[in-house]
Automatic annotation (TrEMBL):
Lineage: Eukaryota, Fungi, Dikarya, Ascomycota, Pezizomycotina
Organism: Sporothrix bragantina
Signal peptide feature range: none
Record region (Disordered): 390-419
Protein name: Alginate lyase domain-containing protein
Domain Alginate lyase: start-end pairs: 59-351
InterPro entries: Alginate_lyase_dom (IPR008397), Chondroitin_lyas (IPR008929)
Keyword Lyase: yes
Length: 419
């Protein structure tokens, strides 16, 4: 018996509760194909969760030295596509020069970026595994991971990204560094909701009321930095995937901390300003098609926008209960989704643009999300989709994830997993 419906931010809590109930009623549906798919996904999820139990926690204070601010609690990362200039070898290659789509392995020496990706992924997987299995080991470790990075004074990150994606010899941080967080952080908010177990007092799973309050306070401060700060405003104004992810990040955090007005502003901005400026009538996304990995960035941008559409759905449902009308983002996205459907179902030959590293499965989640929202063309396409090569957990976490990250040569596909 499912004892609560989580009030998740992006994921539909009612759907999660229904999935859990279906898994628990195995005797009645033993021959059901959908339930068999859930069991397979649960096996993948718990196997990954077991891997995360063996590592972490991580802290922003683990880096060898502080960044430009001199404060070890400030997050620091290096721009991935910038390389030493061979013509300036005597000056350490500075200022660096850009090679779009080619990831400089030097960025991995900045442990904040490496570790925060582990924080995001592990907390999300562990919290989902806890929700479906009630195994408190997963909750306790997720609690430790989140507490260490966000809450404990000795190890917590300060709620800013002032020094994200710096370029050696050029700057000490950039607005577009916000994408270090925006592409995956929203899942962490759902993880925290799953750990809280509804409105219970005393969660008995390692995540305390003090942890929950501290994490919410951190997010309120981070939201203020995003909305009011120069970097946040600059990133939000971009008419490409950076702007899409910034809007999604702000809306998700606002929903998590209960800032209903900010959520409504983000949805209205996306519907009336951002999407019309970034997606053409025929569904093309000019800013993403101009990239060396046009397929990756077209699906990447849609990942942000489909997740924002799901946050908008949660907000609209709340407003509906109050007798008000909430805006829906989905109809503004269908042309762009239909533009990627031929390649999503037919492969590289159906994508009429250059791409350095085409991965057909990158579109799987966003098409399934659109299908769930009622888009007929996506519903028809679902049986023809290519699934991610390292296993499909969509049945347990039906919200888009980044399935096709930009990788270094030789790096295996799929999302970050335990090492």
């Amino acid at each position: 018996m499912v004892d609560y419906v989580p009030q998740t931010v992006t994921l539909d809590g009612r759907e999660l509760a229904a999935i859990k109930a279906r898994l628990q009623n195995t005797d009645k549906v033993v021959n059901d194909k959908a339930t068999a798919s859930l069991r397979t996904a649960l096996g993948l999820l718990t196997a990954e969760a077991e891997g995360w139990l063996k590592q972490g926690s991580w802290s922003v204070t683990d880096k060898a030295k502080a960044g430009p601010s001199g404060n070890i609690h400030d997050y620091v990362s290096q721009a991935p596509y910038w390389w030493p200039d061979p013509a300036r070898e005597s000056e350490g290659g500075k200022p660096y020069i850009e090679r779009d789509g080619q990831k400089n392995p030097e960025v991995l020496t900045y442990t904040d970026r490496v570790y925060v990706e582990k924080v995001f992924r592990s907390a999300y997987v562990l919290a989902l595994a806890y929700f479906y299995t009630d195994d408190v080991r997963y909750a306790a470790h997720a609690a430790l991971v989140l507490r260490t990075w966000f809450v404990a004074p000795a190890t917590a990150m300060r709620p800013n990204l002032d020094h994200a994606q710096l370029i050696p010899g050029i700057n000490t941080g950039r607005a577009i560094g916000i994408i270090d967080f925006s592409q995956a952080y929203a899942s962490v908010l759902d993880a925290a909701v799953l750990l809280k177990r509804g409105d219970k007092k005393g969660f008995d799973n390692g995540w305390t009321e003090e942890d929950d309050a501290g994490f919410r306070a951190w997010n309120k401060d981070f939201l203020a930095w995003l909305v009011n700060g120069e970097f946040g405003q600059e990133e939000h104004a971009l008419r490409n995937n950076h702007g899409s992810f910034a809007a999604m990040l702000v809306a998700s955090i606002a929903a998590y901390v209960g800032d209903k007005e900010q959520v409504a502003r983000e949805v209205a901005y996306a519907v009336h300003e951002h999407v019309p400026a970034t997606i053409e009538a025929d569904g093309q996304q000019p800013a993403e098609l101009a990239r060396t990995r046009s397929w990756h960035y077209s699906t990447f941008n849609l990942l942000a926008l489909t997740r924002l559409a799901m946050v908008a759905d949660r907000e609209a449902e709340r407003l509906d209960k109050e007798g008000k009308k909430g805006e829906r983002l989905w109809p503004t996205l269908y042309a762009a989704i239909e533009y990627v459907l031929p390649a999503a179902t037919g492969g590289r030959d159906k994508w009429p643009h250059s791409d350095l590293q085409f991965e057909q499965f990158a579109a799987a989640d966003l098409v399934r999300a659109a299908a769930a929202a009622g888009h007929a063309a996506s519903q028809a396409a679902v049986p023809k989709l290519m699934m991610p090569p390292d296993g499909d957990t969509w049945p347990l976490r039906p919200a888009p994830e980044q399935l096709d990250p930009v990788r270094a040569p030789g790096q295996t596909p799929g999302a970050a997993k335990p090492m």
